[in-house]
Design goal:
Shape: elongated
Number of helices: 8
Number of domains: 3
CATH topology of the largest domain: Pseudouridine synthase
Radius of gyration: 23 Å
Largest sheet: 9 strands, mixed
CATH class of the largest domain: Alpha Beta
CATH architecture of the largest domain: 2-Layer Sandwich
Number of strands: 19
Oligomer: single chain
Helix content: 10-25%
CATH superfamily of the largest domain: Pseudouridine synthase
Structural class: alpha+beta
Length: about 325
């Protein structure tokens, strides 16, 4: 099946993101597939899967914010920072029950904006070419440096506290790429003085991809090719923070041939979000000059590719071309 687009998969538990990609390859009979953001095996929810030429869009989604719904348990520290790990230590139920709603709210309020976070030892982050969980499983230690993440918002949904080891807090968080929600649970537990670990996690959104538009793998496997095609989104559909430019007939060939196009002959529909606004973390400088580029021929608007404008604003040039003339 020849597909060039995106399907939003609703990942289930007990699967890695790689497992999802492998199964999608079997279902669709194509090798060129990738996902836009790893989910732990415990986590469920939104996992955009890019197919065919749409895999080339993944690098442009670095500024997408992701929204999660999480449930954490108080009282224990786990080696994996989640419920699937091994207990390292615990505090007494008496101490857990001293935690009140006011203290929880105060600690949560400290987890907004730019936050320094140390990635979990049991994670796929590579140090010296080796994944952290490989060091952990081999009983080896390695220095893990903290790094900045950005938490756009965090809100407590419910609290079941004063129940000893059954004390739980549910919250929703919107954050930058590279944020470990397990580490947030661990760090909140430490600030509360009673430890804590992630009990469950669902990703509700990844940029413009929403849980409402997602579909489970078993459902996809039972669909006809036509039904699957119906679920495929265009490669440009998830790009949110770039500007938009529409080219006229005579500039389309120049653009798709890799030549520069004068901006004076372009219809600039929208400017990039980060042209004037700053992203809170370091990103590619070109993203402040990046445009999703379309061509209009015969009244039909067609996605051509991603363009970067030069620094003086006089020309645009394709960074990647997606359109192929027939």
């Amino acid at each position: 099946m020849q597909i060039d687009g995106i399907i939003i998969v609703n990942k289930e538990q007990n699967m890695t993101s790689h497992d999802v990609v492998a199964r999608m390859r079997r279902i669709l009979g194509t090798k060129k597939i990738g996902h836009t953001g790893t989910l732990d095996p415990m986590a469920t929810g939104v996992l955009p899967v890019c197919i065919g030429k749409a895999t080339r869009i993944i690098e442009y989604l670095d500024t997408d914010f992701k929204t999660y719904r999480c449930r954490m348990t108080l009282g224990k520290e786990m080696d994996t920072q989640d419920a699937w790990g091994k207990e390292l230590r615990r505090t007494s139920e008496e101490e857990i029950n001293k935690v009140d709603e006011e203290k929880v709210a105060k600690v949560f309020s400290e987890f907004t904006g730019i936050v320094s976070q140390k990635p979990p030892m049991y994670s796929a982050l590579k140090i010296n070419g080796k994944k952290l969980y490989e060091y952990a499983r081999a009983g080896e230690t390695v220095e893990i440096k903290s790094r900045n993440i950005f938490i756009k918002s965090i809100a407590i949904d419910s609290m079941e506290i004063g129940k000893g080891y059954e004390s739980k807090i549910s919250f929703t968080v919107t954050c930058s790429k590279g944020t470990y929600i397990r580490a947030i649970c661990h760090d909140i537990g430490m600030k509360l003085g009673v430890y804590g670990f992630m009990n469950s996690l669902e990703r509700r959104a990844s940029g413009k991809a929403r849980i409402e538009n997602s579909i489970k793998l078993d459902e996809i496997s039972e669909m006809s090719p036509a039904e699957i095609e119906n679920k495929v989104m265009r490669p440009d559909s998830l790009i949110d923070c770039f500007g938009e430019i529409v080219l006229k007939d005579f500039d389309i060939k120049r653009f798709t041939s890799g030549l520069s196009v004068w901006t004076s002959s372009c219809n600039i529909v929208k400017e990039p979000r980060y042209k004037k606004e700053s992203f809170p973390l370091p990103i590619r400088e070109e993203f402040s000059r990046a445009y999703v580029t379309y061509g209009e021929t015969g009244g039909v608007k067609t996605f051509l590719g991603i363009a970067f404008m030069d620094e003086d604003g006089k020309n645009i040039k394709a960074d990647k071309v997606f359109y192929q003339s027939r």
